[in-house]
Design brief:
The complex is a heterodimer of chains A (348) and B (139). By secondary structure, chain A is α+β, with helices and mostly antiparallel strands. Chain A has helices at residues 7-12, 33-42, 62-69, 120-127, 146-153, 194-206, 214-223, 258-267; strands at residues 2-3, 16-20, 23-28, 45-48, 55-58, 82-88, 95-103, 110-114, 130-131, 136-142, 165-170, 173-178, 187-193, 210-211, 272-278, 287-291, 294-304, 311-317, 326-331, 334-341. Chain A folds into 3 domains: 2-53 and 133-223, 2-Layer Sandwich (Gyrase A, domain 2), CATH 3.30.1360.120; 55-131, Alpha-Beta Plaits (2-Layer Sandwich), CATH 3.30.70; 245-341, Aminomethyltransferase beta-barrel domains (Elongation Factor Tu (Ef-tu), domain 3), CATH 2.40.30. The mean pLDDT of chain A is 97. Chain B has a single domain, classed as OB fold (Dihydrolipoamide Acetyltransferase, E2P) (Beta Barrel), CATH 2.40.50. Chain B is built from 3 helices and 9 strands. In chain B, strands 1-2-3-9-8-5 form a 6-stranded antiparallel sheet. A 3-stranded antiparallel sheet of chain B has the order 4-6-7. Chain B is globular and about 35 Å long. The chains are: A alpha+beta (348), B alpha+beta (139).
Chain lengths: 348, 139
Amino acid sequence: MKTSPLDAQHRALGATMAEFGGWEMPMAYPSGTIAEHMACRGSAAMFDVSHLGTVRVEGAGSFDRLQRTLSNDLGKVAPGRAQYTHLLDADDASVVDDIIVWWHPGDDERFDVMPNASNTENVVDALGGADTTAERAVIAVQGPVSVAIADRVVPGIADVGRFRVGAVDCGGAQCTVAGTGYTGERGVEIAVPVDQAAPLWEALADAGAVPAGLGARDTLRLEAALPLHGHELGPGITPLQAHLSWVVGWDKPEFTGRKPLLAERERGVARHLVGISTEGRRPPRAGDIWHDDRQVGVVTSGNFSPVLGHGIALGFVAPTVDVGAEVEIDVRGKRISGVVASTPFVTR
Amino acid sequence: MLAAGTVAGMNVPPELRYSSDHEWIRRDGDSTTVSIGITEYAQDSLGDVVFVEIPDAGTAVAAGDSFSEVESTKSVSDIYAPVSGTIAAVNDQLEDRPELLNSDPYGEGWICTIEMSSPDEFGALLDADAYRALTEGDE
């Protein structure tokens, strides 16, 4: 199992570690998932997300390779910008991976493609490039005062806006900073050379960022209704079904999976992703979704919402079931009442 | 049922008995009624508890039956009856404050009491030393 460059920091803090995509990562610190979640909503939390992959694609032809492979239209952005995009299956337009592309400032042909941990090889196969994951740590600082805190530690970070990418000097090391995250909050993700990762982590903690584990990252992304690969995206699931049509550059002449995706758009989706608010505190983690005495779908993720104080879920349902519909979720034989809600569940 | 925690030196009160499902059982003197909850080790492994299914008083349970569920932000765990009998009192405040299982597992985080139908079963439960050995073996 792989370990993060920040492994010693997590252990010193008494983190509960767990396997995540082949990496041993902190699930929670002794503060607990809910306190970490609320720190992110109320002030600033920091997450070690070094398990995300980094695939460096650079040199002549890089833009063209990304543009004809990935779903989103890179032509809509520019160097110094980040873009959320998908790698689709050529045959059925399933989401092979969801990815953030960091387009380095000042270089038309230099990209850091950030896949999910377990999909890094798929992405290298599709795009070429070099897996540079082992050369850096990635620290996500997220929350309403996260950018101010990070800027105190690394002056210049505040200049990196939402979905922007900047090169920032942190303590003599060159860091790449993106205004991205996975919590629904304002924040930055900092890719720092491995040997500078621990001092940066410590400095961010001293400045007030609360260490938070992947447990909190999951409850935060669920409140923000952000999809997780392997749950809301994956084999058999297309961006259309997940309401991510905006991730698709429909006007591009070519991208992997374009043909089957156009065909699905033509005939209409057989199911779609919705959010469900449930009564009571029981997490609707998994189960069949019922509406009008018919099973109409299945939950893909669910948990207790620390901010709302009740259960929330994401799931795929028949296209006729939409916002406002009363549903029940069968959680291990017990029916929980819910209603299809507009998402994100928690807006900032 | 539970993943091993990483914190050493868990509190295992010597006056209590334990089950291999990481529950504690308290009996005062020769009373035929026992109270039960989950151990510090269990709450640490579960993480933040967000929901406890409060059992219904009056329900008959047999030793080993699952009669309740505890949900944390990361997983669900069954609660098994450590002894046979009838559920007597239940801790209603867990409905709004399930986090008491984390903050005070041996006190305010008690789950219910059971009026034992076969008090002999109590003697077969683990004592504190045996339970501690069990948790250390898990790690």
